[in-house]
């Protein structure tokens, strides 16, 4: 029989989650942060197990996420920011570097790290993605982290059950 491991129904009350949020473009990032926190709480993470780390801008997100990920104390990290295209190509370089570094960390530490960094052409697009008609990407990032935490918990439990019956390595 095929087993499905999705972690639905697993409690996240004891899980620690960090929200790393850029302060640049605060009218956008505060909305992302608020939605992420509401989502984490609604998803069952205890408020005492959530820490918010504020950084100057999106460029600093990986630098703050690194020691959090390396600590082994967290179940997930939500990174939030907004990079808006300007007159040069700086946004492309920032976006690429941030996304690659967060992806590398997630793999290195086997830790769910959501990249809720808006990469928009203008402020209006960012506003629409931080609580406007396009939803709130802070909520989406937090939801993804919650789902991945549950998935990892379910995978670990399944692997332990294989070990218990002598099927593991």
Explain what you see.
This protein has 169 residues and is of the alpha/beta class. It has one domain: Rossmann fold. Helices cover 48% and strands 20% of the residues. It has a 4-stranded parallel sheet with strand order 2-1-3-4, with helices on both faces. Strands 5-6 form a two-stranded antiparallel ribbon. Helix 3 links the parallel strand 3 and strand 4. Helix 1 packs parallel to helix 5 and helix 2 runs parallel beside helix 3.
Question: Number of helix segments?
Answer: 5
Tell me roughly what share of residues is in helical segments: 40-55%
Number of strands: 6
Q: For the record, what CATH class applies?
A: Alpha Beta
Order of helices and strands: EHEHEHEHEEH
Trace the largest sheet across and list its strands: 2-1-3-4
How many angstroms does the end-to-end distance come to? 22 Å
What fold name goes in the CATH topology slot? Rossmann fold
Can you tell me the overall shape? Answer: elongated
Q: Could you name the CATH homologous superfamily?
A: Lumazine/riboflavin synthase
CATH architecture: 3-Layer(aba) Sandwich
Mind describing the biggest β-sheet?
4 strands, parallel
Q: Please give the domain count.
A: 1
Q: Low-confidence stretches at least 5 residues in length (pLDDT < 50)? A: none
Q: Which structural class do you get from the secondary structure elements?
A: alpha/beta
Query: What amount of the residues lies in strands?
Result: 15-25%
Q: How large, in whole angstroms, is the Cα Rg?
A: 17 Å
Task: Report the mean per-residue pLDDT as an integer.
Answer: 94
């Amino acid at each position: 029989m095929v087993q499905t491991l999705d972690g639905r129904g697993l409690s996240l009350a004891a899980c620690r989650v960090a929200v790393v949020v850029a302060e640049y473009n605060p009218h956008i990032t505060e909305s992302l942060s608020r939605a992420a926190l509401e989502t984490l709480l609604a998803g069952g993470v205890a408020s005492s197990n959530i820490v918010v780390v504020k950084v100057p801008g999106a460029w600093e997100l990986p630098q703050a996420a690194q020691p959090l990920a390396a600590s082994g104390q967290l179940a997930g990290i939500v990174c939030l920011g907004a990079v808006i295209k300007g007159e040069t190509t700086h946004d492309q370089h920032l976006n690429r570097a941030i996304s690659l570094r967060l992806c590398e960390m997630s793999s290195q530490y086997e830790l769910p790290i959501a990249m809720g960094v808006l990469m928009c052409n203008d402020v209006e697009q960012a506003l629409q993605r931080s609580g406007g008609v396009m939803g709130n990407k802070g909520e989406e990032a937090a939801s993804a982290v919650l789902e991945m935490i549950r998935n990892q918990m379910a995978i670990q439990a399944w692997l332990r059950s294989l070990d218990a019956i002598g099927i593991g390595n």
